[in-house]
Amino acid sequence: MFNIRHYIYDLLVEQGVSETTAEYLNMLALLLALMVIAFIVDFITKRLLWRFSAGIAKRTKSSFDDILIQNKLPRNVAHIIPLILLIEFVPQVFSDFDYAEDIIEKTLKVIAILLTLRILRSFFHSIRDYLKTLPRYKDKPIHSYLQVFMIFAWLLGIFSIFAIMTGITFWKFATSLGAASAIIVLVFKDSILGFVASIQVAVNDMVRIGDWISFEKFGADGDVIEITLATVKVQNWDKTITTIPTYALISDSFKNWRGMSNSGGRRIKRSVIIKASSIKFLDDSDVKRFKNIELVSSYLESRSNEIKKYNIDNEIDKSVLINGRNLTNFGVFRKYLQNYMENHSAINKDMTLMVRQLEPTPQGIPMEIYAFSSDIRWQNYEYIMGDIFDHVLASVTFFDLEIFEYPTNFNLKSN
């Protein structure tokens, strides 16, 4: 390099070019030649490294090497050789320009740090993408942990760049930052809180990717699609995206529906309000008529015989219907719904199933169905629940009962 540098300089001086101009032209010519050589070396290195990596990826069964190629790790590594070439020879190109040589050396060192960070980012992204392909880690917040490593890497990189630019040693520069630690904590407050929160979320298994969560404070109701160091992204059922701070998951209350999904049943808890004025004791003719309803015929047969025997044995005066023991249309209807739910094919029989009477209200007596559907998918769940209550609403009149409704203009005109 030195011979070539002197040769070009001497040639220019012999042609009558001034020494100062010859120095600048010589420097530009050498710099251009070095940049061309570095570009060619970079191109050849990238091609060779890419072919070598692709060949290994084809011969191996693991997908990790394919992911490394997809995240351009071999391409980034290939830049190391031309960068070493520039670091070695650029200072010699600027040896006659002391003021520029120091700037160029520092610039190349900064580029080397940035290239190292870029290689680390490609490597961490490859780890993230590979772990996502494994069922064991598919729902884990891997992205959060890798972000932590990248934050530390960027901090070290930024400290090193400042140390290079200022001429202060790295450790001395890092020590001098102790006084500014309060500012650093303030600037990275969300990241620190998010880091702590993401660890707690992962350790306590509070949220996984794919979980359905409801978070009223942030208006979120849908599936978790991403967990990062600072935020959790939820895709709502209307396909909008809600972003929640990660630390909010441990500082506020939210609902995770994973337990319902894993249980194999989705709860149905709904009631109809029966008008109190339509509830009555059943006489023999009513019992006889209700026996035609298959789901309660055997119940009515055994129950009415039991009640009749009790009343006879205790010499109850049945000339007045209220005396002794009696069946009511409300009780028979409750038994009918219980049998109907127990025979429904879409109800999970291994989970709680009951039809119960709730406390009377000013509107009437609520009759509640409490059960679990065997299909937890939302659309199917709504269909099952709708099918059940279609039947409930239509069957009420067969038991001489009425469902409460607020009066309308039509009802008032009819009366």
TrEMBL record:
Domain of life: Bacteria
Membrane topology: Multi-pass membrane protein
Location of the Mechanosensitive ion channel MscS domain: 190-258
InterPro entries tied to this protein: MscS_channel_2nd, YbdG
Pfam families registered for this protein in UniProt: MS_channel_2nd
GO molecular function: mechanosensitive monoatomic ion channel activity
One cellular component term from this protein's GO annotations in UniProt: plasma membrane
GO biological process: cellular response to osmotic stress
Name the UniProt record assigns to this protein: Mechanosensing system component YbdG
